[in-house]
Protein 1
Amino acid sequence: MTTYLIRRVLLLIPTLMGITLLTFLLIRLSPGNAALLKGGGGEGGGKAMTAEVREQMIKLYGLDKPPLIAYGDWIARSVRLDLGNSIVDHRSVAAKIGERLPLTMSLAGSALILSYLLAIPLGIAAALKRGQIVDRTISFVVFVLYSIPSFAAALFLILLVAGGDYLNLLPMYGANSINAPEMGPFTWLWDRILHMILPVVCLTYASLASISRYSRVSMLDALGQDFIRTARAKGLPERLVVFRHALRNALIPIITIFALELPALIGGAVIIEEIFSLPGMGQLMFQSIDTKDEPVIMGVTVLAAVVTLLSYLAADILYVVVDPRITYE
Amino acid sequence: MNADAPSSREIYSESYTQRIWRHFWSDSFARNGLRTIIALFFIAALAPFLANSHALVRVDDGQVSLPIFQSLEAIEWRFLLYVPLAAVVYFLRGRFVIRPGLSFLGVVAVVAAIEIVLAVTHPVNDPTNDRDRPASFKLMPLIPYAPVESTPDQFAPPSWKHLCGTDSTGRDIAARMLHGARTSLSIGFIAQSIALLVGVSLGGFAGYYRGWFDIGVCRFIEIMDCFPTLLLILAVIGLFPAQNNMFYIMAVIGLTSWTGLARLVRGEFLRLGSQPFPQAARALGAGDFRVITRHLLPNALGPILVSATFGVASAILLESSLSFLGFGMQAPTPSWGDILSDARRYIDFAWWLAFFPGLAILITLVSYNFVGEGLRDAVDPRLKVK
């Protein structure tokens, strides 16, 4: 197991290098650079900078170096955990990410937990009543939910319950009300929760659909095993057969698919943050792509890649932890 | 036993394709999904005739004219003329064997004639409409508005005049939806075809030749999979802007969503390659190309088709997300995502701007997903959980 883990972790390094190199080349090969965009004045706002200042800026951020050498510099800095400063506002990339990460993670995290809490009972119910009306209804509803684009659902929820002509129960956008700084901690938290309900719902229903479909199949698989017949034959009550024998085995594959859901949720959070104007990672990525803020784009990419790779790794480790029959020897 | 179950003799003589088709067709969701998709494609193809500000036929003082044909752009003419041409070629394919050279020349001549006529007659961009112009007789299309045409009715809710309402500049949403079907469906289809081409060839070669090429492809897939697809596409389009270019959007979506297919094809080729039949083919003197295209690929076709069907659905979803975020097709080009992004600004009162395009996307995605699901059950009945 230890050797397996070491090998897996070592394999992360070339993958991460590949991801960062690809992103870096993408930025460098695209027309224009941050200094030109920033100093251009005009549309981007702000005053035009002189050619001299622009030259200085290009030198300072290594924008004139050949891409591969600049990439080498970036790697050399990053291994010392220094992601550099934003070209646009000169603040440290780590700090910029740090202030936005909690929002995105709490969004994706609560959506993940919520969808598991709802999906597993739905999947079990469908599996136990397989082929009956309950199963078919759940399967159909879940299938349709799976096909609704999250942004369309977001628009509808806003229209129906947030600030539209119909019900005005929830705030329409933002992570907090304008007067949030003056609130006490509990009112602030309540305010934040109210603002988060719609984004979390929009993120939850899609992964709810895939997890519940998955848990139905997994539960059916477990119920078809020989030991279930044995358990029934020896006269165990159905409740014990289902919850103690079948469910425990059915949960193994369900737990591990969180690794597939988490990156999808982070990707989905991008569009949801944009719709609800939430200051999270997605918005940061949008802004930095718009201004070609190379260090910020690189920082966000590395973070997204690390989260994805680590969740894959965690899934592989969880397999062994929850199912002693599997080993990586 | 249901009525259309085949007799035992038919089961023994039916081909693989027939068996898949029979399984597929017996699933009512899949069947209706396929019907809906075909209907959507027809609507998309006929969009200029269903929604247009020009009359189909008008008669002025005994003079008959067809104004609608003057309003068609070159690309619409191509579509109208080449699809029947392709159909004719397809149905007459058996007869071409007699004089293949001559038939080929004939097709080339027809294509050249069409192109020359199109090049000479510039598309007439006629801003007038036939709605208000009196005539002794006129037959308007079902929806008498062009998709890019602004009318004085802004934010009109759905009524008999504007079936799906109008937007901020008074454009008819029903007309935009019909024409938007072309954008969404064709981007979904072609983007997934590109993904299919890249995924099948990279995955196929990796699975067939193994070794270093395989390792390289697998690493590359792993790297691509670490980017959330939407984020990657946004980065590419954000960094290399070429807005309102349908082919660019198709290429970007296609080139970023092939990894699932490549994994699948690689796995299938690894599995099939170690079976005796490709070896037998090689022993009979078949080259690599022949083994891949004639022996391995047909055997992997089922799962590829299933994955590609789901892929079309996700490409349509990606396109509409991009247009929604303002990175894809933009006004005046009609697209469902673009109508939705317009809806965002006026969501507090203009529900019809969000409802109709949202419903259209939903119906399309559900249909494709049902077809994919039905195909999966048909291709591999063992997976069927009933």
Protein 2
Amino acid sequence: MQEKIQELIIMVLQHSNRYQPNIEFSALSRLREDLGLDSFNLAELTVHIEEEFGVDIFEEGLVITLGEIYSKLSSSH
Amino acid sequence: MLSEELIFDVSTNQSITFEELMVRLNSEAFYYEKWCYTSFYDFLVNFLKALINGRDITLLDKDFSNEELAKLGYSNSILIKHTLASTSPNITDKASLINKLTNSKSSVTFFTSGTTGIPKRIIHTIPTLTRMIRVGNNYKDNVWAIAYNPTHIAGVQVILQALFNGNRMVYAFETSGNELKRSIIERGITHISATPTFYRLLVSEKTSFPAIKRITLGGEKSDARLHKLLSISFPNSKINNIYASTELGSLFVTDCENFVVPASLADKVQVMEDELMVHSSLLSWQIEDEWYKTGDLVQVINTFPLTFKFQSRKNEMINTGGYKVNPNEVEEAIRSFKEVREVRVFGKPNSVLGNILCAEIVFYPDNHLENNEIFSRLKNILQEFKIPRIIKVLDKIEVTRTGKLSRK
């Protein structure tokens, strides 16, 4: 699941020309500051994650780090 | 014999003569005031029976579900049947039918389909419905394609334009592009009136219909690329763009994107805060305010004579992350790619942005663009917030009952 999320983040960044090949993922990576996702990227990411896993990760409010996405998805399954 | 045919229904291959229509109009002493009709011919017979007998009628789509009818305030039992006078209306020829129609005191109730929201009830009379209708010798050999929903005002106006000139009508609203292409040749269609969406699904740079003399567009924003494609596909045709709405009927006509307000309407039309306003005297019903807000956002090209270009419906604007996006502008940008046959842009509720911009795209056969290519091309022509984030490739795009792109 973690790999799939990372794939989706890369795809979203590529869509808006924001992808940096040296990107590093860790549970502590902040979606905005560290991974470079803006609000439009986050919105797109939620749609793709919801299609893949059936969970709207932002439904209950702000998500800051990649680890928070992982835990939301694992707690829902 | 084809020459005697008055109606041809492409979906059922049914052919009706004027004499057959006359028999039904003279002999059936009833009509349905409210009815989800079954076939175009039956719809037309019922509509004309109401009009020539001076009775009021409400036009309902044939495929309304019970839930949709309930929203309009109707129960499931919508077959409201009335008996008509036992004396025959005595329609003996086309002239007597036209005479009865011209003098009809009937009211006709429509429901605006809208691209969003709940349908609104709008009542018209024969004078408002026939305001733009032209009659004369020049029109007598026209053959019309009925490409609008017949229960909507644009469809009724085409039907009346054809009937008032005794023209053959080819009902093509529920048919595929290919069936219509065949009918244009086989039934000798010369005139088509339809939405820009309808034409986009019909024409390409490789199609050519030299027999068509006039095509009319209305109900949605058209753009320069479509006009160019239309001039290729209809090389001998005049192209009219009509400004019309269910509330107002047809008001302005142009051969391009810019509408010039004629001198006769100069003091009855104005633009305030980008919205087109029309004087209440042009409406078929009473309103409290002197000016009626059309809900159409326009760009003023010239102030005298007032000349404007349609931009979008006010309620079509999509709010995404606090930005207002006009879906027509985005569709126009995507349509500028030669691979794209049709596109629909709409907002989808999203927990981050309120709405996320989505696009559905249909490519021409043997054409395709990867999403990344679409995104990167759009970056050159649109601000970033106007770029759809979710793009889906489809074979066909959903349209509303009026044949417009759905914004849902």
